[in-house]
Write a structure and sequence with these properties.
The protein has 235 residues and is α+β, with helices and mostly antiparallel strands. It folds into 2 domains: 54-66 and 132-228, no CATH class; 71-129. The chain is 36% helix and 17% strand. It has helices at residues 69-97, 100-129, 189-202, 217-228, and strands at residues 53-54, 63-65, 134-136, 140-144, 152-156, 160-168, 171-178, 206-209. It starts with 52 loop residues before the first strand and ends in a 7-residue tail after the last helix.
Length: 235
């Protein structure tokens, strides 16, 4: 049997001076090699401009909501009446038994009633003297930062993430959530404490009552939907 020649192991050796038939293309003269560039997005702002804060909501907006003193009086009056009925029965029994202990007990009950009446009266004064609780216009809204103070913050519609309603007991609130969580960072220590409590219950530190306002809830929500013009959801 004839021995056939075997091919050499490994790739064939190219002759000296050999060049590939199609060399890699060189960059055009005067132009650097192409490099992939990232999209030119504008960087986020490094400085934060706090929104305007005033001591009292201005009443020059097209739609202004004020607290209803009559509704608050009905609420506080009913609460005082409940306390009076709750303590009146023990007071009557103590008076029927007579003795010095009965007089002391009645005086203590009167002191409790006066104390609660004073606290509720102070709350009513603070709420009613703080001015409007909400003012809405084409550019944005003013809303109070604390329930018992007149201090308010301005939020443009573009800076609001959403507007929604929440209920706490007998009271329904309109809640405004800002897009930037730093919006309420310059309102003071006491306001920050109140805001943290409202954040816990309502999810936002900027709230206004619907139940004890001088306008009905449907009118308030309708004005928010009208003036926001789709720039933020109103629920």
């Amino acid at each position: 049997m004839t021995n056939l020649p075997q091919p050499p192991a490994g790739p064939p050796q190219q002759p000296g001076g050999w060049q590939p038939p199609y060399p890699p293309p060189a960059p055009a003269p005067g132009y650097p090699p192409y490099q992939h560039q990232q999209p030119n997005y504008s960087p986020p702002p490094t400085t934060f401009t706090p929104p305007p804060v005033v001591r009292r909501i201005p009443e020059d907006q097209p739609f202004v909501v004020r607290p209803s003193v009559k509704k608050r009086l009905l609420l506080f009056g009913g609460l005082l009446l409940f306390i009076l009925l709750l303590l009146g029965c023990p007071a009557g029994l103590a008076l029927s038994d007579g003795g010095d202990g009965a007089v002391v007990f009645v005086v203590a009950i009167a002191f409790v009633l006066v104390f609660f009446g004073g606290v509720l009266g102070l709350q009513l004064y603070l709420i009613s003297s703080g001015g409007p609780i909400l003012a809405v216009g084409p550019a944005g809204l003013w809303i109070k930062t604390r329930p018992t103070r007149g201090q308010a913050i301005w939020l443009p519609w573009e800076g609001i993430e959403r507007v929604y309603r929440r209920r706490w007991g007998l009271e329904k609130m309109v809640c405004v959530k800002a897009r930037d969580p730093r919006a309420g960072s310059n309102l003071g220590a006491f306001t920050a404490l109140d805001s943290s409590m409202q954040q816990l219950f309502f999810g936002s530190g900027f709230t206004a009552t619907c139940t004890y306002a001088d306008k009905p809830e449907t009118e308030i929500v309708g004005a928010l939907i009208h003036f926001s013009a789709g720039r933020c959801p109103v629920q």
